[in-house]
Specification:
The complex is a heterotetramer. Chain B is mainly alpha-helical. Chain B contains three helices and no strands. By secondary structure, chain D is mainly alpha-helical. In chain D, strands 1-2 form a two-stranded antiparallel sheet. Classes of the chains: A mainly alpha, B mainly alpha, C mainly alpha, D mainly alpha.
């Protein structure tokens, strides 16, 4: 894998994440989040996980963004009404973030290099190579599939319970 | 040169995942908007996705990790839906998304 | 026998699923009226099937049963070769005991929910079924990633349940729980990812093989463990990760707080710790020591913080934090005795904490308040509630011969034996505080000077009364037959 | 096997206890059912004891398979315990029979029967127990029933009950310590595994403590002083059964168990310091108690002092460590149980018929209650040691042993015999002979048959055991010693004519003294006034009556002083616990409550700090 491309992608990811957190407008935040998802999807693709990348792209970049945008529009984004003072105060709170991240990034990298840490990975002699995704997903991980079914059921009930307009019991 | 005894690729991926994770937690602490907190959670999940993919890639077991990521994304969506639903209901009650309004329960 | 086993194991997932299907696919009116009875059937069914399962384990002395859920993977060689990847369900004594507790608390919760309006009742039942499936799955999983999946299911179902009435407090508690839980999920998942990176697999057997071999730990093993410990500690509500717990307990509807306090948060956090400490991170010093520290802090913090609370449920919530500390203490002290104590304290905690939450529901329904300062002398009007709460609190504080005494005793002995005598001392000392705040409740609520405005208060009837009686009987009977239960488990090689 | 399963003897504990518990749940009115139940239970007890006789077995169970720290539920019978069980069974049956009549119009009947049966169960258990800790359990259980029985007459009997509890409790505490030391010294708690621990080093403490426990239960000095008070305050059947019989049986049982040559727990040899100490306690008990008995003016109180003094003979006899002394002590124990119960029962009959036991108010009862009088006379002659009643023979054996161990003990015993005879002459004369003084005495009738029958049986036993003393000695007592008897047989007429002659001279002196005293004061009650008011003795008697010599009172004075000091310390500690700790806990709790603002960000910060703590723990461990 090409290191410069990866570095570029990772850099973009961090920037997108910081943007999603820092941008004042919620709508733009959601879009930054979608961008983060897209960059992540590309990274996944490069790492050799095309199916996961596809899922990330369609569900996270697509569906979740839609959810956010509809939630934002339903709650009414009122940045204009924010007072000048509040905006400044908010900026002060979040401006520390990039500096903070920079310090952490540099510190951890230095510590890593200084200690020569390496995840060697365990070379499992019995590591089977014949495992296909299909076999793994449908046979080996069927418990997870059951989990997905249940969690989707839960999501459906969440929509029934939480999104109903009239209910102030 | 006795090649660097660290892998820059490992380093860069882990550090960037860490940074994204920290960004999310930072936002959870400092944000006052409910929806932005949900966005922060999503941001954290992205970091975790990256870590998962990386772990599979490192061990040469990307197929296993693909199935993990798919399951994870499904769960992520459901959590996002629930969170958005709660945010909406809160908004209907309080007419604001300010998290500081949510401090009735304390002590 | 095999067929019976298949039915039993299958029923733990299939039965709730069936109820969801029936109640939602039928026409609305029938579905709504059938919802709660169906939930009762499921809970009782779960208690029966887990009982049968325990008998089966005891008879065959096999220790555990492995099974898959949709289709059988008959190629066991393949499973053996891919031990790092294959997910299947596995039940042993611990799973069955906690699943019995799940059935029991669900039953109590449904009985408490009897008065719900039918509209809510359907939603409640649906979500309860999801919750039961999630918790059953949690009890049966055999790999880290599936553990995460079922943790999330349990979490999602409980967020929605807390916000079921969409009142202001419920939403607030639910949201706080959601945020903290999502943070925990991120940590746990990051921990799993790193664990996967350094060990090359996520199944319990794969990882425990590496830990049991005693090879020196990689830095990333430690990082992974840190993240897992922190994440699970949030889910369990160990201090100082506990912030959400009192809020969620306080704000949940009565029947939901029975569930939450009785079983859900214990399943999500404490069961995971029990399972990981017992089967996965064997002899992982950092894991054990950090959790020992957190558990000790929780015991003291929960007991002290409960002293000055006014809200009945909030006191119970802080007491939960304290009791969770005891269970975790037993789980991670590193001796089999402690593990047994933790398992049985888990069950006992489910019993007595449910009792107390039912008491709280009874008080709320009859007196219309949960503020203990406003109550007084209610034992005369509500003898059943008063008596059952006394029994439950004595069990919580560990007074012989009630059930809580034995399990707490086992835990403290185990902690003492493993050389943590200071922690054991603190644990005993904190019991005194437990007694103190519960005595305070009793004085203020049930036995203090009677308030005139409560002269017309009547004892609860129906579901609440039944569940109080049932739980009190279990507490007392468990206390009396405890040595026998222990003996049975021991002689049958189940623990 | 007598056709019984060998673990049958567990029923000796279970059946009376169960019957007692059933009685507790019966309504108060069902007198007949309760009486029948008590009758059946005690009869069963007696029959089982008889059938068990001659059966030497050990029965042993582990506690449910869990680890048990060597405290097994182990029971056994041997020659000693089967003999004691038989005596217990017989006495319990007779007194139960008697109490049906005595308690008919008393409102504490139910409580009495309950405690009575539980007491029997515990006594049986203590005698059967093969494990020292198990024995201790039953032994301490008796303390509870004792306390309960003393409170039967109402709350105002509290001081006496507390006094008994304290004194017996102290001796039980000593026993507990002794059991611990014995177990430590022997390396096991099973009594059949412990034989003849040499009394040296730490074992001295074990011996002394166990011995104190044993004689404390028997009511010897210095644990005696609750018995006279109990005589005033407790129901009479209680006096007859507990201080009169069962406690003596049990206490002496343990003493013999400790001291038995060859098979006892400790190696106890004649002419050793420990032997001398035990004998001295015995001798002191005789002299002191009998001297106090001499001057009593109350039927029950007088008897209660004799209940103490007779223990002295047993302790003295056993303390000699000679076979003849031990045989004498055991024989005296049986005899004492018989005639002392008989005496107490006759006191009960007098109390029931006249309403009082004050000797100043009753006199000349013999004319109205002839049967009672005859039974009393037989028992009184027996206790005074007139031949051919049983007391004579056992006392002669003790005299013989005391003579061999030291003339001083013999003289003490002889002095005791003199005063015993004198006091009973006085008692009999005052109560049953002479002219009826008070008009209401003329209306007195004979006691009911249910009360008379046990008395007659006991009186008959006094004669039987005297005339045919080879029955108890040959069948019951001498087998206990087994090989230690070395071929001797003490049955029949006493073997030392000189001692018999001296004893008879002493008895004649006592009679002479009596007539001297009666002549001097003109009434039976004043027969010993010349001793009571003798110069010097008078002063001591007065002090004794004021309880100057009561160890309990001395203990109370000392403890009051300590209590005064401890009170100050206690207040300070109490303040620390009740004031300071509560204040700290409350303020910390309040602080925590205010600290929790309910803000989400705060919770996240806590969690992050928790994460840092976990990281810190790991970092420390990695280092």
């Amino acid at each position: 894998m090409n290191l410069p491309i990866l570095l570029l992608l990772l850099g973009l990811m961090v920037v997108a994440a910081v943007a999603a957190v820092m941008i004042r407008s919620l709508l733009k935040s959601a879009i930054a989040l979608a961008a983060l998802s897209i960059v992540l999807a590309i990274t996944l693709f490069f790492l050799g996980a095309p199916l996961a990348a596809l899922f990330e792209l369609s569900v996270c970049a697509g569906l979740i963004t839609v959810i956010f945008i509809s939630a934002i529009s339903l709650t009414g984004n009122k940045p204009k009404e924010e007072e000048e003072e509040k905006i400044r105060e908010r900026r002060a709170r979040f401006l520390k973030l990039p500096i903070f991240l920079l310090i952490i990034g540099v510190f951890v990298s230095l510590a890593w290099i200084a200690n020569g840490i390496n995840i060697s990975g365990i070379s499992d002699p019995a590591a089977p190579t014949f495992q296909t995704f299909k076999n793994l997903f449908w046979n080996m991980r069927q418990v997870d599939i059951l989990g997905q079914v249940i969690v989707i059921l839960a999501g459906a009930f969440a929509v029934v319970v939480l999104f109903k307009e009239r209910d102030q019991a | 040169m006795s090649s660097l005894n660290f892998d820059p690729l490992q380093l860069s991926i882990i550090v960037s995942a860490l940074l994204v994770l920290v960004t999310g937690i930072y936002c959870l602490i400092y944000s006052r908007n409910i929806i932005r907190m949900i966005i922060a959670i999503e941001v954290m999940m992205k970091a975790v996705t990256l870590l998962l993919a990386f772990s599979g890639w490192l061990m040469g077991r990307i197929d296993l990790v693909q199935s993990f990521i798919i399951t994870m994304i499904v769960i992520e969506v459901v959590v996002a839906v629930v969170a958005a639903g709660i945010a909406l209901s809160v908004y209907r009650h309080n007419d604001t998304l300010d998290i500081d309004q949510l401090d009735e329960l304390k002590g | 026998m095999d067929n019976l086993l298949l039915i039993i194991t299958g029923s733990w997932i299939a039965l709730p699923l069936l109820v969801i299907l029936i109640c939602n696919l039928l026409d609305k009116k029938t579905g709504k009226s059938w919802a709660l009875p169906a939930a009762i059937v499921v809970s009782i069914g779960q208690m029966i099937t887990t009982g049968l399962g325990l008998l089966q384990l005891g008879l065959t002395k096999s220790g555990f049963i492995n099974f898959t859920i949709f289709w059988n993977v008959n190629d066991f060689e393949e499973i053996a070769r891919s031990a790092w990847a294959s997910a299947f369900f596995s039940v042993d004594t611990l799973s069955l005991v906690v699943m019995f507790a799940i059935g029991m608390v669900s039953l109590i919760s449904v009985l408490t929910a009897k008065k719900m309006n039918p509209d809510k009742a359907l939603n409640f039942t649906n979500l309860l079924m999801v919750l039961i499936m999630g918790m059953n799955g949690l009890a049966m999983v055999a790999d880290l990633f599936s553990l995460y999946v079922f943790l999330e299911i349990t979490g999602v179902a409980s967020f929605i349940l807390i916000a079921l009435y969409k009142d202001k407090k419920g939403l607030e508690g639910s949201f706080k729980y959601l945020i903290m839980s999502a943070m925990a999920s991120a940590m746990i998942l990051a921990g799993i990812a790193i664990m996967n990176a350094v060990t090359g697999g996520v199944t319990f057997s794969h990882i425990s093989g590496l830990f049991a071999s005693g090879s020196s730990l990689h830095t990333f093993h430690a990082i992974s463990l840190v993240l897992l410990v922190a994440g699970i500690a949030i889910k369990a509500g160990l201090a100082p990760f506990h912030g959400w717990l009192p809020d969620a307990y306080e704000s949940a509807p009565a029947s939901v707080s029975v569930l939450l306090g009785g079983i859900v948060t214990k399943m999500a956090g404490v069961y995971a710790i029990l399972r990981l400490a017992q089967d996965v991170f064997i002899n992982a010093k950092g894991f054990n020591y950090s959790l020992l520290l957190l558990a000790t802090v929780s015991i003291v913090y929960g007991a002290v913080a409960a002293l000055k609370q006014k809200d009945f449920k909030r006191i119970l919530a802080y007491s939960s934090i304290s009791q969770i500390g005891y269970i975790v203490l037993g789980a991670v002290c590193g001796s089999p005795l402690g593990f047994i104590g933790a398992m049985l304290h888990f069950f006992n905690h489910a019993t007595f904490k449910s009792t107390l939450f039912v008491n709280s529901a009874a008080l709320e329904s009859q007196v219309k308040t949960r503020n203990i300062e406003e109550m007084g002398g209610l034992a005369k009007q509500m003898p059943l509630t008063g008596t059952s709460s006394v029994l439950a609190l004595l069990s919580t504080a560990g007074i012989p011969p009630l059930a809580g005494f034995w399990s707490k005793l086992l835990i403290i002995i185990a902690v003492w034996q493993t050389g943590h005598s200071l922690i054991a001392g603190i644990a005993v000392f904190a019991s005194v505080f437990t007694l103190a705040y519960f005595l305070m409740i009793q004085r203020k609520v049930f036995y203090g000077p009677a308030e005139e405005k409560f002269a017309g208060v009547r004892e609860v009837k129906g579901g609440l009364a039944v569940s109080q009686v049932m739980l009190s009987v279990i507490t007392v009977v468990m206390g009396i037959i405890f040595p026998l239960v222990l003996l049975f488990f021991q002689t049958r090689g189940m623990i | 096997m007598n056709g019984l399963g060998f673990n049958t003897f567990i029923y000796l504990v279970i059946i009376p206890a169960l019957a007692g518990i059933v009685i507790l749940f019966l309504p108060k009115k069902e007198r007949l059912i309760k009486s029948l139940l008590v009758f059946a239970a005690t009869l069963f007890n007696l029959i089982t004891a008889i059938r068990l006789f001659g059966l030497e077995e050990t029965w042993h169970t582990k506690w449910g398979g869990l680890s048990n720290f060597g405290i097994d539920f182990a029971l056994r019978t041997d020659r000693l315990s089967m003999f004691i069980l038989l005596a217990v069974g017989a006495m319990a049956f007779l007194v139960a029979f008697y109490s049906f009549a005595f308690l008919r119009d008393k409102d504490y009947g139910k409580g009495f029967y309950f405690y009575y049966l539980i007491t029997i169960a515990f006594v049986n258990g203590a005698v059967l127990a093969n494990n020292l800790v198990l024995m201790l359990f039953f032994w301490e259980g008796l303390l509870v029933t004792l306390f309960g029985m003393l409170l039967l007459k109402g709350r105002h009997k509290y001081p006496t009950a507390v006094k008994a509890l304290t004194l017996v409790g102290v001796s039980d505490l000593a026993l507990m310590l002794g059991v611990g030391v014995t177990g430590f010294a022997a390396g096991t708690l099973m009594m059949d595994k412990i034989t003849a621990i040499p009394v040296e080093g730490i074992a001295v403490l074990g011996f002394v403590m166990m011995m104190l426990g044993a004689i404390g239960k028997a009511g010897s000095m210095p644990f005696h002083s609750w018995i006279p008070d109990a005589a005033d305050d407790a129901p009479l059947p209680f006096m007859a059964i507990l201080p009169g019989a069962l406690e003596k049986l049990l206490g002496i049982y343990l003493l013999v168990r400790i001291c038995l040559p060859g098979t006892g727990l400790y190696e106890f040899l004649p002419h050793t310091p420990v032997s001398t100490v035990v004998m001295a306690i015995g001798a002191l008990t005789i002299i002191f108690a009998v001297a106090m008995a001499l001057i009593q003016k109350d039927f029950k109180r007088l008897l209660s002092y004799h209940a103490i003094s007779q223990v002295g003979y047993m302790v003295l006899g056993i303390g000699t460590a000679l076979p003849i002394g031990i045989v004498g002590g055991l024989f005296h124990m049986v005899n004492n149980a018989i005639y002392k119960s008989c005496l107490f029962l006759s006191a009960g009959a007098v109390e029931r018929q006249t309403g009082t036991t004050d000797l100043k108010k009753i006199s000349g009862l013999g004319a109205f209650m002839p049967v009672t009088m005859i039974c009393f006379l037989v028992a009184a002659l027996s206790i005074s040691g007139f031949p051919p009643f049983n007391g004579f023979f056992s006392k002669e054996l003790v005299f013989d042993a005391a003579m061999e161990s030291g003339i001083i003990f013999y003289i003490a015993a002889l002095l005791g015999a003199f005063m015993t005879a004198a006091s009973f002459l006085k008692l009999g004369h005052a109560a049953f002979f002479g002219k009826p003084q008070l008009p209401e005495d003329k209306k007195v009738k004979e006691a009911p048959a249910a009360m008379l029958v046990p008395m007659i049986i006991l009186a008959a036993a006094c004669i039987l055991f005297g005339v045919w003393n080879s029955l108890p000695l040959g069948q019951l007592i001498q087998p206990v010693l087994g090989d230690a008897m070395a071929g001797h047989n003490y049955a029949g007429w006493p073997h030392t004519p000189l001692l018999v002659i001296i004893s008879i001279i002493v008895l004649i002196l006592a009679i002479a003294n009596h007539f001297f005293g009666v002549k001097r004061t003109g009434k039976g009650l004043g027969a010993v006034d010349h001793i009571h008011y003798a110069p010097g003795l008078h002063f001591i008697y007065n002090r004794a009556e004021e309880r100057w010599f009561d160890p309990y009172e001395i203990l109370m004075v000392i403890s009051k002083f300590f209590a005064w000091i401890a009170y100050g310390i206690d207040r300070a500690i109490d303040w620390i616990y009740n004031g300071f700790f509560v204040w700290v806990a409350n303020s910390v709790s309040k602080g925590l409550k205010e600290f929790n603002t309910g803000k989400q960000s705060q919770y996240v910060i806590w969690a992050v700090s928790g994460l840092l703590i976990v990281i810190f723990v790991f970092a420390v461990l990695v280092k």
